[in-house]
TrEMBL record:
GO molecular function, one term: transposase activity
Superkingdom of the source species: Archaea
Domain Transposase IS4-like: 112-281
This protein's name: Transposase IS4 family protein
Coiled coil: none
Listed PANTHER family: ISSOD12 TRANSPOSASE TNPA_ISSOD12, PTHR34631
GO biological process, one term: DNA transposition
InterPro entries: Tn903_transposase, Transposase_11, Transposase_Tn903
Length: 283
C-alpha cells in the first residue's frame, strides 16, 4: 500500500483514540516520555503492518512522516510497547469499538441483520526446551465469537474464551453488546446456537427476529414454540446473510494471520481485538 494510505490510517487511529476519551496518561505518576495515544497508535500500526515488536521498532526510524504525525520525539524500545499492551485495560478496546461503530453508522440507523458465529485463533509460542522435549510445536487455542452487521460487514461485538466452549454460551453476551449500541431487526446464527432460550431472549426481551436452524438429537427434534416456528417457516433468504460473518473471519485471518504473537492469554485477546478494530477502521 502507498505511504499516503498509511498516513491516513495513522491519522484515523489517532482521531478514534482521542474521540474514545482514552486518557493521555495511565496515572499522574506515569512517565511523561510517551502518551497512551502515541503508544496505542503505534501498536495498532504494528498489527496493521504485521511485524513483531522488535522488527517494528527497528522500522520506525524510516517512517519519519508517521512519527511526525504522532509527535514522537524518540523511538520507544520494543519492550515499552510490550509492557504497554499488558498494562492497558481490555475495556479500552471495547470503548474504541463503540466509537468506531458509531462513525460507520448514521444516527438512529437500525441494523437489518446481525449475524453471529465463532472461530479459533492459535498461538504457536512455547519455550524452546518444551518444544524440543515433546518434539513438536505446542499451540494454544482461543475461541473468538463475533457479531457482524451483515450488510456493512462491521464487527459489532466480540467474546473470547481460552478453551473450547459451546457456541450458545457466547450468544447472550454478543446480543447484549449489539443492542447497547444499535437496534437490530434480526439475528441469524448457525445450528450450533440452536436453543429455545436464545430464541426466547431475542424475541421477547429484545423484540427482534431470530433465525437459527433446528438441529436433531439422536434423530429426534425436541422443539419449543420458536423452534417449531423454525421448522415450519424458516426464512432461508435472511439466513443466507449469516455467511457474511464467515467472510469477516476470512478477511481478518487472510490479512492479519490466525496466529497471535503474544505469550500471555490476555495480551493474545488484545491482539485479536486490535485486528478486529483495524478491520472496522479500514472499511
Amino acid at each position: 500500500m502507498s505511504e499516503n494510505w498509511y498516513i491516513n490510517f495513522v491519522k484515523t487511529s489517532l482521531e478514534v483514540i482521542r474521540n474514545s476519551h482514552v486518557p493521555l496518561r495511565s496515572s499522574k505518576f506515569s512517565k511523561k516520555k510517551y502518551t497512551q495515544h502515541q503508544l496505542l497508535t503505534l501498536i495498532i500500526l504494528k498489527e496493521k503492518i504485521g511485524k513483531d515488536y522488535r522488527d517494528f521498532t527497528e522500522l520506525l526510524p524510516n517512517l519519519t512522516t508517521i512519527t511526525d504525525i504522532i509527535q514522537l520525539e524518540e523511538i520507544p524500545h520494543y519492550t515499552t510497547l510490550q509492557k504497554f499492551l499488558s498494562r492497558i485495560p481490555s475495556l479500552t478496546f471495547r470503548i474504541i469499538l463503540k466509537n468506531v461503530i458509531r462513525r460507520l453508522h448514521q444516527k438512529g440507523e437500525i441494523i437489518r441483520i446481525t449475524s453471529i458465529d465463532s472461530t479459533g485463533f492459535t498461538s504457536s509460542y512455547a519455550s524452546h526446551y518444551y518444544s524440543k522435549r515433546i518434539n513438536k510445536t505446542r499451540k494454544s487455542f482461543i475461541k473468538a465469537s463475533i457479531a457482524v452487521d451483515s450488510d456493512k460487514l462491521i464487527i459489532l461485538g466480540w467474546k473470547f474464551s481460552k478453551v473450547p466452549v459451546h457456541d450458545s454460551q457466547h450468544a447472550k453476551s454478543l446480543i447484549n453488546q449489539v443492542i447497547r449500541i444499535k437496534k437490530s431487526d434480526c439475528f441469524t446464527m448457525d445450528k450450533g446456537y440452536d436453543s429455545e432460550k436464545i430464541h426466547q431472549y431475542i424475541r421477547e426481551n429484545i423484540g427482534a427476529e431470530s433465525i437459527i436452524p433446528v438441529r436433531k438429537w439422536n434423530g429426534n427434534i425436541y422443539s419449543g414454540k420458536y423452534r417449531k416456528e423454525m421448522i415450519e417457516n424458516f426464512n432461508q433468504e435472511k439466513y443466507g446473510q449469516r455467511n457474511m460473518v464467515e467472510t469477516v473471519f476470512s478477511v481478518i485471518k487472510r490479512k492479519y494471520n490466525e496466529n497471535v504473537r503474544s505469550r500471555k492469554y490476555f495480551n493474545q485477546i488484545k491482539e485479536i481485538k486490535i485486528r478486529m478494530l483495524i478491520h472496522n477502521m479500514t472499511l
